From TrEMBL:
Pfam families: Pro_CA (PF00484). Belongs to the beta-class carbonic anhydrase family. This is Carbonic anhydrase. The lineage of its organism: Bacteria, Bacillati, Actinomycetota, Actinomycetes, Micromonosporales. Its EC number is 4.2.1.1. It is an enzyme of class 4 (lyase).
Length: 239
């Protein structure tokens, strides 16, 4: 974790400490995630909350500041792309970020029991689940086995894209991300009530595989995206 040539951990060092350990506001939680993604994109991650001291500190309880409902794609590892560590993110991932009962129950657990203030739907460009659904719809041939459940869950987004005249795969992905945000709120009255109280927000973001950038696609409430993002000062270039 240490960079070559950097001194070891000093007494009182804040190098790996979480600067904002008690995030309870949805917009602040989103800003923290966005800041971590900016550090990741520019190749200057801080790797917060990944040291042995923090591991011991969170062993007795967790207070994650965001739930990630993400696609299972192997290139979409949440703690890496948001530059976070142990105890920060409550992660639920399925192919195509589809939302069955177990996903909804997991989200409700984090929001109501752990008090997590933010739910993020994390999709990405070139999503294989969306492509599989598109091929299935085009050929009229459903996939075999349980993959059909994934494809069936994506089909409403394909129909909506068709209604809106969206034909490119990444445009369809954006619609599927927004549709997943709506599905979470529509299928979970528990989550919808927490959002209505202002205690929680749901944001949909799209991740670009090559650049590593996360871009907001939808937010309920929309004001969740308004907080300034402070990714910290870029590291000085090596002498
Ligand atoms: Zn995917």
């Amino acid at each position: 974790m240490s960079n070559p040539g950097t001194p070891g951990r000093q007494p009182g060092s804040q190098r790996t400490a979480d600067p904002t350990p008690a995030l309870t506001e949805p917009a602040q939680a989103y800003a923290e995630l966005a800041a971590g993604n900016r550090r990741f994109v520019r190749g200057a991650p801080r790797h917060p909350n990944q040291d042995a001291g923090h591991r011991a500190a969170v062993a007795d309880g967790q207070h994650p500041f965001a739930v990630i409902v993400g696609c299972s794609d192997s290139r979409l590892a949440a703690e890496i792309i948001f530059d976070r560590g142990l105890g920060d993110l409550f992660v639920v991932r399925t192919a195509g970020h589809t939302t069955g009962p177990e996903v909804l129950g997991s989200v409700e657990y984090a929001v109501t029991v752990l008090g997590t203030p933010l739910v993020v739907v994390l999709g990405h460009d070139s999503c294989g689940a969306v492509q599989a659904a598109r091929e299935s719809a085009a050929t009229g041939t459903p996939p075999q086995g349980h993959l059909r459940a994934v494809v069936d869950a994506v089909l409403p987004s394909l129909r909506r894209a068709e209604e809106e005249g969206v034909d490119d795969i990444d445009g369809i992905v954006d619609i599927h991300i927004a549709q997943t945000v709506e599905a979470l709120l529509g299928q979970s009255p528990v989550l919808a009530a927490e959002v209505a109280r202002g205690r929680c927000a749901v944001v949909g973001v799209s991740y670009r595989l090559s650049a590593g950038v996360v871009r907001p696609v939808a937010a309920v409430p929309a004001t969740t995206l308004d907080v300034p993002i402070d990714a910290g000062t870029p590291a000085a270039p090596a002498a």
